[in-house]
Amino acid sequence: MRPFEYVSPTTKAQAVSLLGASWGGTEILAGGTDLLALMKDDIVSPKRLVNIKNIRDLRGISSSPQGLRMGALTTLADLADDAGIKKNYPALAEAAIEAASPQIRNMATLAGNLCQRPRCWYFRNGFGLLPKDETGNELVADGDNRYHAILGNEGPAKFVSPSTIVPVLIAYEAKIRLEGPKGKRELPLEKFFVIPKSENEREHDLGPNEIVTEVVVPPVPNAKIAHYEIRQKDVFDWPLAVAAVALKMQGSNVESARIVMGYVAPVPWMSPEAEQALTAQPLDQETAQKAAEAAVKDAKPLSHNEYKVQLARVAVKRAILKAASGGAA
Amino acid sequence: MPDYAWPDQEHRTLIGKRITRVDSPVKVSGQAKYTYDVHRPGMLYGKVLRCPYAHAKVVSIDTSAAERMPGVKAVEIVQKPNANIHWAGDDVVAVAAVDEPTAEDAIRAIQVEYQKLPHLVSDAEPPQGATQEEGPLSMNDIDDLLDNQVPNRQIVEKIQQYGVTEKPTEDKLKSFKSSGANDAVLNALREATVHPEAASRPKSNYEKAAAQTVGDPDKAMAEAEVVSEGLYGVPVITHCCLESHGTISEWPDADHLLTHISTQNVSGIPGQMAEPLAIPASNIHVHQDHVGGGFGSKFSPDRWGIFTAQISKKAQGKPVRIMLERDAELEVAGARPSAYARVKVGAKRDGTLVAWQSESWGTGGPGGGGMPPIPYVFTIPHQRKEHTAIRNNIGPARAWRAPNHPQAAVLTMCALDDLAAKLNMDPVEFFGKNLDITKPRQDIYREELGIAANLMGWNEKWHPRAQNRSGNITRGVGLSLHTWGGRGHNSDCDLTLHPDGSVDLKLGSQDLGTGTRTCILIVAADTLGVPMDAIQLEIGDTTYPPSGGSGGSTTIGGVSSSTRRAAVDARDLLFAKVAPTLDAQPDQLECVNGRVGVKGDSHRSLSWKEACAKLGAMPITVRGTNPDRTKPPDLTNSGVGGVQMAEVEVDTDTGIVKVEKMVAVQDCGLVIDLKTAESQCYGALIMGISYSLFEEKVMDPTTGRMLNANLEFYRLAGFNDIPELVVHMMTGKGYDERGVIGLGEPPVVSPGAAISNAVANAIGVRVPFLPLTPDRVLAALGQKAGA
Fold first, then answer.
1. Least enclosed by CB within 10 Å: which of A86, B25, B657, B681?
2. Interface pTM (ipTM) of the complex?
3. What pTM did the predictor assign?
4. Per the CB < 8 Å rule, is A133 touching B778?
């Protein structure tokens, strides 16, 4: 294994000061469930690992009238087990359980889940985030893209955003808090994800010398919230499509909706078209179907993934119907 | 002449009963030692530099930086400059170092320059006009065949069938020999017809074999009252052994090698390592206790196994370990050939099969590959078959549990099921109606079909394809038939009776996790009339009598027959010693329940220990052999039949298939252990569900690399994917008296066809290719909607 430096700061400020100004030289180690595999496979080879697990400020879940705060180091197991989350944000607890096997849930952190690298098999085989061969051919478009993006795939990025928890958090209107050399900032979670245009960029708006400190979710809205994942296998499998919806109701009609898809685009994909289609409509099979159609109206499948358009459509429809019937169990 | 015959039902104490495997405690407690668990003192870690290109020529190799690294103990160049590489992941340089990270760093420090060559990794239908008749072989072709690890037997067949383009020189023959050609290949080359005019022929990736015709297929097809046409296929899958391939070799002295290897073929390993290492096979000691899966891919020491011995020698004989990483295991350590076909099959209105026509293709990697045995099980009277082998750069094929049969089952049983649907016949009735052309197993299949239909609840569950839909969840049932040989292999064993009453039994066989240890002990204990735990069994070592490789369902027939003969001989020797004491003739004696006594006289008997004391001061050892014509009868047999049925549920909105229930009805002659026999079937059904729904070796067309050489995108069935499994073994009259027949292969043959047929029944349309993934199911449904 290539030698690397290992540092273990105890404060956020120390951590930030130990990070580099550009990507590649330094990686942040939390649960390690993704990073260690990437290092062993020689996909990333940092010169310095900054272990943030000893920073107490990054831990903990707390609820207040202002909402829910989850520290960056909150594990997926914590998310799934927390009584407050189970009661007030059940779709989040459910998504956390479905995200990984128990062993992984005990190690993997919330911030790590948000910052995990794509599962794209070209990326994981060492051909880069925007995969090219030695002569510059774009590999995904000409290759086996059965698991790749059907939306937002016009540029060189064709991987899909890998988190199954992020769409649910966006449905809950979560915000992410970051800290870097210039101080703190807060973003709506959906703004945190970006589509890279060059190999020097990453798939999120995190500076190379910034860390994720926490995620906050506003008080539970008066909304119907649910998520739905389509996987070929029930367990231990990456989804083929994910949808999360939050529906604010006025009487029996939808007043406003948030509809977010996962595993369809290089970023979690919000669909204003689907949201629009549901607004001021009652919730039934027909309106759910129309919203689902609207969600994939602009899909541009690649050579081998047209089926994912149907799966995204079904995921949206089923998430809406699941929310209508009461959401997560 | 002693009576070696298997005891009849009323005289069996253990044989045929449901007995728990003897190695369960050490396995569930983690005490069982697999090759992967072997850590020898001072052991070095070997790693292999693998070629990143699917087809390339090695231009230059610079290992100097690696050799200078601290902790690196040996570097061995495997493919020298000018060598041609035919698949990504092929071995180029092997190194040994004090630990794994150092070995990996050393690999990264090696500079190899390659000249990339054009590659093909697709096995799609050959383009029109691209196929080429097979023809005479050039010396380069022979080199390629050997390089690509095509079995010698197949090379001989090709040489004899097509001849060669030039007469090989003795030097050339010598180089073939060092590349792995055996004497049969060399003799075939010496005697081959020479066609110099064929030397200028350009090479195609698509080799078309001569058409095979039976009867008058054109006339029969023209006269058939109902004809069904379809496209069917199974992709290349990998063996994906959970214990990867690997070896640990060391030289206790300059002339002797000790090798721990994960293998299906303990006794056969020294003979394969001797020549490349230039030492006598008798100087090679091979040992293995347990193996974590082979499925046909672990018969050879493999190149990397040879490296462990070579680099150990360079490192003063220290133990060197190479266990393949997961990605290498999936890329290079075994793949099952693909098979696809356009099939046309014709019948009379009453369902009687009359004609078969198929154009098939598939790949077994660089060596091409043969046609599966189609039409499978059913000898349709009129046939035309054409097959094109695709030679490509995906890596070499290896035997995968029931080689070529699962493919043949899909190509045949799915085509027949579509014909039954076109006839609007229940498949049980349709297959049942045609059993006359499954001779000689028609009666077995008929009985099994009835039992399977009962166990499945077929009559309640089957529905015509047209009437299947309400909502997005739909169910269906399907079936398939299969066969296999399974005659016992050559196997010797030594059974020793000690004067203190202890018994040991030694043979160089291996237990693949199938219950071989348990079955050997059952046979020996049943014959000697002692408990199984009174016998000390040793297997997995080349110091024990040779016993065949565990492939082709040959182990149980081989080891049970030789064990039976040894135990009968030992028992009779004991009787001869004991008879005077009991005042009886040896043939009046029996041994049951740990006592040796006179038949029918319970007062005249000795305990086992007392009886063995009569042996005198020295133990006696007898050798049991299979086959052994001097000691009839033949205790093993060949040829089994099985029927499987599957029930599935399909979500037609997502294309996700769930198997809800599977039924396996299987004959294998005399069952030694009913419990482990049933386990074989359960395991086969699980493996079958896995390849039916999930498994596929995905190759990237541009880079020629395998994209899913891991366990996240090379999916295997997990607990939630396994439904109710019902296994019924055919036993008793008509089955037991046939003798012992192997069971490893047959139950894994049918799941693909049965599950595909169930999906067709559920959704009303054929999904042509396995695995039955959402994209393929939705595509088939889309075509149906558009039709």
1. B25
2. 0.96
3. 0.95
4. no
